[in-house]
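Please check what follows.
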Amino acid sequence: MRLITSIALCLLLSLPSLAQDNNAVLENGIITGKEIKVNPNQKYYNPRIASSRSAIIPGWGQIYNDSWWKVPVLYTGFGVAIHFIGVNERNRNENLDFAAEELAKDIPNENLVRIYRRRADNWRKNRDLVILTMVGIYALQIIEAAVDAHLKGFNVDEDLALNIKPKLGVISNGAPYLGFGVTLPIGR
């Protein structure tokens, strides 16, 4: 059964891809084919403007790039981070208050004070980590706005093709192998 499946898979993968342009002509070492179509109505997005706008107001670069759907995701991330900053700060202050109450007693339990201070320190570390995460979200949205502006003009048409064909070869020790070859034509 495996042999039949392998043979069928190899035969199916050896079929020519319909995405290839066979009408291209080689002239003086340069492949010429269809002309590049330029859409005069296509808007140009400047990555510098997108990233600087995102640095001024988070999400402004995404709006400039017409990626409106990313803004609620961004502000949800900021909102969740702000929520957890508050939770961590509240728990830290609560543990510091417990430690202060224990120290105010006539005979304080030093072990309990140490536990409360250690917990407060852990909540502070968590709060600081969430603040760093928030700074990371801010930096990523600036980078994302610039990359999105760069890729808005990227040509994604049917001339791009990836060919997968079976490949039979010989390894350096003389043993034959059967595999797949992947070809991406560039320069059309």
Observations:
- The beta strands are 25-27, 30-32, 163-170, 176-183.
- The longest helix spans residues 110-151.
